[in-house]
Amino acid sequence: MNRTGSRSSGRPTLTEVALQAGVSPITASRALRGVASVAPELVTRVQEAAARLGYVTNPAARALASAQGHSVVVLVPSLSNHLFIEPLEAIHEVLRPRGLEVLIGNYHYDPVEEEKLIRNYLAYQPRGLLLTGFDRTDAARQLLAASGVPRVHMMELDPAGSVPSVGFSQHAAGAAAARHLLAAGRKCLGYVAAQLDPRALARGEGFREVLRAAGCYDPSLDVLDPQPSSVGLGARQFRKLLARRPEVDGLFFCNDDLAQGALFEAQRLGIAIPQRISVLGFNDLPGSAHTVPRLTSIQTPRAAVGRQAATLLLGLLDGRSQPTCVDLGFELVSRESV
Amino acid sequence: MNRTGSRSSGRPTLTEVALQAGVSPITASRALRGVASVAPELVTRVQEAAARLGYVTNPAARALASAQGHSVVVLVPSLSNHLFIEPLEAIHEVLRPRGLEVLIGNYHYDPVEEEKLIRNYLAYQPRGLLLTGFDRTDAARQLLAASGVPRVHMMELDPAGSVPSVGFSQHAAGAAAARHLLAAGRKCLGYVAAQLDPRALARGEGFREVLRAAGCYDPSLDVLDPQPSSVGLGARQFRKLLARRPEVDGLFFCNDDLAQGALFEAQRLGIAIPQRISVLGFNDLPGSAHTVPRLTSIQTPRAAVGRQAATLLLGLLDGRSQPTCVDLGFELVSRESV
DNA sequence: CTGAAAGCGCTTACAG
DNA sequence: CTGAAAGCGCTTACAG
User: Where are the transmembrane segments (chains A, B) (predicted)?
Assistant: First the structure.
């Protein structure tokens, strides 16, 4: 048989399972895949044979024969800031039970790296794609369109509404932040952002718009730093901003780690939060509920985004659902720092 | 040609590249893979043809034909506690340039889930495996041994020294923690651990051993909680322990997030750190350098573990290196909390 | 240094 | 409901 040549993998094949079960390989294949048309008795016979031999489908052979991978590719801009871990876990939970492998690509906030990942992963003929936001190279856009692979975008809402997306309005979140600070009686407000991805920028837009409408927008109070977000950076930016503009009385941080750093630094500087300055975070990261003072933040539906995006993709694959735009909203969690 | 049938993937194939370049598919294959024996002129011709057509190798076909995947599987117990992100990134950096795909499996600290992942991923015929620690089911052990796939274990050192491993001695780290606290003049010491994976347990052993030798080990001062590690849990455990044993004067936490929680809670309780209680963390997570007071912690070589493990695996694949045990050590970072 | 033949382990039409 | 034939797109020996 085939097993003689050194090219065989050594693992049991479908043909061997079929032999044991006394059926043809095609029937064995159908039985294992749960194709309806197989006699129940044969199904159990095949399943037993497979179990006995410890048979596991060779994914390469399956993908080659069916011209379809059994994977869904998820592309995220980062793994290190914890933000994308929760969607990732939720995606796994939805997709794994359906027999779909989840391939994770991290492009480190670099559109060129994302384009490479898209090119590479498309070779795997994935069933679907889960992407972050809408900001990518033209080449990447073309690759995606040409591939025809169903996809859902996460974290941002499609402005046009034509591409399936699951997330919330970053702009509205920024606006809500400004309104909350204004409602707390603060007047001299700044936005402190790092990384400066499209979402942080959109929140800044929303924030500014409200301030402008309230007649208290001061561009010199904004701090936009392209460096990765971190506790240390938050502390540094807080100190610098305060030295420069001691009259500031409210700060919106684009991520909780920055805000936590500001809280630490304020304590070192002897600046009372929120008495002298209100501090508002974003994302409500683990730990923010326990800082001193407890951080007021905007909770984002990260796990829900992953879950819904995966579910929507599944619907698209089955032809059950239409491309839609799912707005999951956000929630301001009021604690002690504003 | 083949392209007529609906079974084709629609993407350009090696054969088409070969046609364009005026060579046989085999030569095209060799040229693209960088097999030495191809005439330089043909190599460039093939590469140009491939570029022109936008050819990307079909990984399924390649894996099937070569009875070898081009992936390395990395299995980690968690993604959410940030600990395993750095090794993962480092592994990517080493393996991707070599054309190896990195498949990530997260088993959520569940050996049964790890066993399933091993079974599944082995079907991909990975070139190598990167595993976390040595604690797994017997079935998993057998699968690994039977597969013959080269592997390197991370984070712990192989006690026997026969299996390749890269990490540091968890036991020694625990002992170092105890010595540091003792050297600071503390006598009433406890170990606060969560998750209770084998590594946290090993650190506890090392910690206890030193205390015992110093004649001040008190088992009732240890807090071992199987829940996931978090800032909130650290705060809770700190408060409870303090209510129960107000005389405690030094605490070693199995992870920095717990220690950070304790710092917050101490502040709320008005307990001076380190004057009344020394707090020692573990892992030196981002943020720990900025807490109030700044957290003294034990820095672990997480990125280096990933980098070295991947490098060692590469050596194993090339037959360049022998299985060895690489001890990367750890470093106590003295700040303000002890 | 290059190539014709065969095969990797599945699944897709096509029959019956 | 079941199966024989062909094919997915590569690479492995084997020649020359």
Answer: none
Return the bridge partners of A190, or none: A251
Query: D8 C1' – A50 CA distance, angstroms?
Result: 24
Nucleotide nearest to A67 (CA to C1'): D8
According to CATH, the superfamily of the domain at A170-299 is Response regulator (3.40.50.2300)
Q: What is the per-residue pLDDT for B8?
A: 66
Please check whether residue A260 touches B, CB under 8 A.
yes
Q: How far is A62 from chain B (nearest CA, A)?
A: 8
Please indicate if any CB of chain B lies within 8 Å of the CB of A120: yes
* Spatial distance between the Cα atoms of A218 and A248, rounded to a whole number of angstroms: 10
H helical segments located in A123-214? 138-147, 170-183, 198-213
Beta bridge partners of A189: A250
Q: What is the largest CA-CA distance in chain B?
A: 84
Q: Which fold has domain B2-57?
A: 434 Repressor (Amino-terminal Domain) (1.10.260)
- Summarize pLDDT for B84-108 with one digit per residue, the tens: 999 999 999 999 999 899 999 999 9
Residue of B103, B290, B294 to mutate for A, most A C-beta atoms under 10 A: B290
Instruction: Tell me the count of A-B CB pairs closer than 8 A.
Output: 114
3-state secondary structure of B139: helix
The per-residue pLDDT for range A243-275, each reduced to its tens digit, is 999 999 999 999 999 999 999 999 999 999 999
Residue B146, both tokens: 């039977």
Q: Is B70-168+303-329 CATH 3.30.460.10?
A: no
DSSP 8-state class, residue B188: S
The CATH 1.10.260.40 domain(s) of chain A lie at: 2-57
- β-bridge partners, A74: A104, A130
Asked if residue B1 has pLDDT above 50, the reply is no
B60 and A69 within 8 Å at the Cβ level: the answer is: yes
What per-residue confidence (pLDDT) applies to B69?
Answer: 87
Contact B79 A89 (CB under 8 A): yes
Judged by CB atoms closer than 8 Å, whether chains meet at A230 and B63 is answered as no
Contacts with A268 from chain B: Cβ below 8 Å? 292
**Whether A60 and B80 lie within 8 Å, measured CB to CB:** no
- CA dihedral (B288, B294, B295, B297) positive or negative: positive
Thinking of the domain A69-168+303-329, which architecture would CATH place it in?
Answer: 3-Layer(aba) Sandwich (3.40)
Interface test with B, best of A56, A79, A93, A107 (most B CBs within 10 A): A79
Percent of chain A with pLDDT over 70: 97
* Chain B residues with CB-CB distance to A79 below 8 A: 79, 85, 88-89
Mean pLDDT of the B275-285 span? 98
Would the pLDDT of B277 be above 60? yes
Start-end of CATH 3.40.50.2300 domains in chain B: 70-168+303-329, 170-299
For residues B206 and B175, the answer to whether their CB atoms sit within 8 Å is: yes
- CA pair distance B174, B209, nearest whole angstrom: 9
Give the pLDDT confidence score for residue A7 in this predicted structure: 62
> Residue A8 pLDDT more than 70?
no
| Residue range(s) occupied by CATH 3.40.50.2300 in chain A | 69-168+303-329, 170-299
